[in-house]
Amino acid sequence: MTPALEVPVKPQLPWTKLAWFGALLVVIYAPVLRALVAQWGSDEDMSHGFAVPLVSAYIIWQRREELAAMTPKTNWLGLLVVIWGGIQLIIGTLGVELFTARTSLIVVIIGMVWLLCGTKILKKVAFPLGLLFLMVPIPAVLYNQITFPLQGIASKFAEVSLDVLRVPVIREGNTLEVPNGHLSVVEACSGIRSLLTLTFLSLVYGYFFENRKWIRAALLLAIIPVAIVANGSRVTITGILYGINTDYAEGFFHEATGLFLFMADFAILLLLHRVLVKFAQYIENRKAVA
Amino acid sequence: MSFFRSRVFTALTLVLLLQGTAYYALALRKEATPAVGPLALFPRSFGNWTFFKEQPIEQEIIDVLKSDDTLQRA
């Protein structure tokens, strides 16, 4: 008799459960999702929304073997979170509060993972699940609270920069009087767009390319001054271009400046990462010597 | 397939179905629009105010307003 060969069974993700509950969620949240996707397509502040669920799914997919090897443990507290998510959806629908209704989907997903898989697995997927919150546009109340001061900062930054560059300028609130007319620093010029997109990029970049939590946090925090300075610079450049030819302050040139400065923001993020890594290595070496 | 006979499956499926039913019942309900009568039915006196005269609105203003009903009384 030859002994039977034992082939190790490769652990698999619970596809049937995922398909069943995934389908239920899609059916329940179809109107919410449709409106959300439509906003990603139409709202330039939220164009990164398309990438968020894809990146989140990719991170989970990357960890599939690790996750499949873990033993799921039912945790009934997760059901309370699912119920809370449902209540949030109802409240959001009754009050026509889109943010509440939309984030309820993520709350329900978190509850479902906790209920079906347990705390350990939930912790493993906490980052990609948390990342999903970035696909939901921030509430209008908060949006206005952020954009208004940002508009003011951009206007003041441009006023000082233009003055330093010897371009005559008078600022009245968020309006800049420059040689050929006046420039209004409107909501779209507040820098909120690059701030939101860079927050997402910084989190994803930190996740894939850095293990040290403090460097990840520093990269995330650095986004705020980087976005503010870049946006102020954009308004300044627009002011200079407007002085040369009024057509340069809008259309292709304005869009191109925005794109260029966004790439510059990202380059600064990469550079900052390099500097922080060098600094971390220096500290580690000093500790090793001591 | 024992999972589909488990308490977790039943509980979660029920909760989600209930949630979905409640949501669709709310989302698809008809908007309650209060019935609005013509402005001409506005009372001719209330409180200390009493109707004095009807003042016609100029066509130019009506064109700008584009309202479906107008009323101007002194």
What would you note in describing this structure?
The complex is a heterodimer of chains A (290) and B (74). With 290 residues, chain A is mostly helical. Chain A has helices at 15-28, 30-42, 51-62, 64-69, 77-94, 98-117, 119-124, 126-131, 140-164, 192-209, 213-244, 252-289; strands at residues 170-172, 175-178, 181-184. In chain A, strands 1-2-3 form a three-stranded antiparallel sheet, with helices on one face. Chain A is globular and about 80 Å long. Chain A starts with 14 loop residues before the first helix and ends with a helix. Chain B is mainly α and 74 residues long. Chain B is 38% helix and 5% strand. In chain B, strands 1-2 form a two-stranded antiparallel sheet. In chain B, strand 1 (45-46) and strand 2 (49-50) form a beta hairpin.
| Category from helices, strands and their pairing of chain A | mainly alpha
Going across the biggest sheet of chain B, name each strand in turn: 1-2
Ends of chain A: how far apart?
64 Å
**Inertia-based shape of chain A:** globular
What is the CA-based Rg of chain B, rounded? 28 Å
Q: How large is the share of residues in beta strands of chain B?
A: 5-15%
Short summary:
The complex is a heterodimer of chains A (290) and B (74). By secondary structure, chain A is mainly alpha-helical.
Keywords summarizing the entry:
heterodimer; A: 290 residues; mainly alpha; 2 domains; three-stranded antiparallel β-sheet; B: 74 residues; 2 strands; 5% strand
Topology (SSEs and partners):
The complex is a heterodimer of chains A (290) and B (74).
Chain A (H helix, E strand, L loop, with lengths): L14 H14 L1 H13 L8 H12 L1 H6 L7 H18 L3 H20 L1 H6 L1 H6 L8 H25 L5 E3 L2 E4 L2 E4 L7 H18 L3 H32 L7 H38 L1
Antiparallel strand pairs in A: 1-2, 2-3
Helix pairs in contact in A: 5-6, 9-11, 10-11, 10-12, 11-12
Chain B lengths: L6 H21 L17 E2 L2 E2 L8 H7 L9
Antiparallel strand pairs in B: 1-2
